[in-house]
Specification:
The complex is a heterodimer of chains A (319) and B (94). With 319 residues, chain A is an alpha/beta fold. Helices cover 50% and strands 11% of the residues of chain A. Chain A contains 13 helices and seven strands. A four-stranded parallel beta sheet of chain A has the order 3-2-1-7, sandwiched between helices. Chain B is an all-alpha fold and 94 residues long. Chain B is 52% helix and 0% strand. The chains are: A alpha/beta (319), B mainly alpha (94).
């Protein structure tokens, strides 16, 4: 198929039917009576919940909303509103006490105070990669930014040990959510519906045994921009469609682009498609208005992230 | 603690860098050897965690501070580029 600007266009009706067939088939295979979906107030979980409702009926879909003290208040608000719109049962469980008891905040903050001794609970933090990969070349290194909410914002490039300490602590948020999702799924004889899209899966933008710990991935074959088209078709609430995609893991607002992808989703998805399908460099540059250097930089970044996260997409190996 | 070799010559700098790359990155890249001009990224020798290790190593070993704007392939993506970059940072003539 010739590479063109609308290469990722989908027939939403057919896609809905195809995915609903997949969900029903998996439900039968697993002998489950319904689906549990973790609602984050973001586009992916909203679309997955809609698809489960279409496939299984609203009475067989349970929406679990699992905020913690650093989640954006919008996450819970939009999830509840969307759950109401779909007519599904929802429950909100604040996972902050669990995270406190396993030391998520304490362990992470200890690492941060080694860098910024003045860091306290009033401060906001985020982690980002260098911005705008298409405009300027840079290796992937993470920068920690702390805002003291008194007018002072400080940033530092993270060393490996510190990055690992922060990531290890932070990933317990997603893993704690997984534990809750499976508690309800097993109790109700439901399956856990994953909410990771293809752009995220390909680049390893998920936590193993966290948001990656699920029974099915119904949108794992769709790029993020295709998920948006489906969201419009399925009438996901406008607040969620308009919301900037974010990991919602840090107290200081950070988008998926700033945190991991280094370019907006529309460009990312087209380039990921071209990279995966071996589209000629000339066609990519012509259709996307990029020069050879920009395209190569993106492909190099994709290859590096794909390789570095390969183990996340595999079952544990054995002899 | 790694010995500071700021004062030592270019051939020793190359050996130190080469040994660091061989010991820390080559096994996981599935390679036995690499050339001085090989791109670390293209060959899959160094990933995003690897670049942090490399930065820490050269900052400590050569007593330099690498600014964020300097963490770019032009400075760090091969043994030869690394050598040139460190020479510039330490004021070595060659």
């Amino acid at each position: 198929m010739k590479f063109r600007k609308d290469i990722l266009k989908i027939d939403c009706k057919k896609e809905e039917e195809r995915i609903c067939g997949f969900i029903r088939k998996q439900q039968l295979f697993m002998k489950r009576e319904g689906a549990v979906v973790g609602l984050s107030g973001g586009i992916d979980s909203a679309v997955c919940a809609e698809l489960c409702v279409k496939a299984l009926g609203k009475e067989n879909v349970f929406g679990l909303i699992l905020p913690e003290r650093e989640s954006s208040p919008k996450s819970k608000k939009y999830s509840l509103k969307h759950g109401l719109k779909m007519g599904i049962k929802t429950e909100v469980i604040d996972i902050s006490p669990v995270l406190e008891s396993i030391g998520t905040y304490e362990r992470r903050d200890k690492v941060i105070r080694e860098i910024f001794p003045e860091y306290d609970e009033q401060c906001r933090l985020k982690i980002t990669l260098p911005p705008d990969l298409l405009s300027r070349d840079a290796f992937n290194f993470f920068t920690l930014t702390v805002d003291d909410r008194r007018g002072g914002i400080k940033s530092v490039r993270l060393k490996k040990e510190m990055l690992n300490g922060i990531v290890a602590a932070t990933n317990t948020k997603q893993r704690t959510r997984m534990v809750h999702l499976y508690y309800y799924a097993e109790k109700m004889n439901y399956f856990v519906c994953g909410t990771t899209d293809k752009s995220e899966l390909m680049q390893g933008f998920f936590v193993k045994y966290g948001d990656g710990g699920v029974d099915i991935e119904p949108i794992g074959h769709l790029y993020k921009s295709q998920v948006y088209r489906l969201a419009e078709y399925l009438s996901v609430i406008e607040e969620i469609i308009q919301r900037t995609p974010s990991p919602d893991t840090f107290s200081f607002d950070v988008s998926d682009e700033e945190f991991y992808f280094r370019m907006p989703y529309d460009k990312l998805d087209m380039l990921l498609y071209a990279w995966e399908n071996g589209v000629s460099h000339g066609d990519v540059c012509e259709v996307m208005g990029l020069d050879e250097e920009q395209m190569k930089r993106a492909f190099m970044d994709f290859a590096a992230k794909h390789k570095a996260t390969e183990h996340l997409r595999k079952l544990p190996p054995f002899l | 603690m790694t010995e500071n070799i700021n004062h030592k010559d270019a051939s020793e700098m190359e050996e130190v860098l080469r040994n660091f790359v061989i010991e820390n990155f080559l096994p996981s890249a599935g390679l036995d050897a690499f050339k001085n001009d090989d791109s670390f990224m293209e060959k899959g020798i160094i990933d995003s965690t690897g670049i942090l290790e490399l930065l820490e190593f050269i900052e400590e070993t050569f007593s330099i501070r690498v600014e964020d704007k300097e963490v770019i392939p032009d400075n760090l993506d091969s043994l030869n580029k690394l050598k040139s970059f460190i020479k510039r940072k330490t004021g070595h003539a060659g």
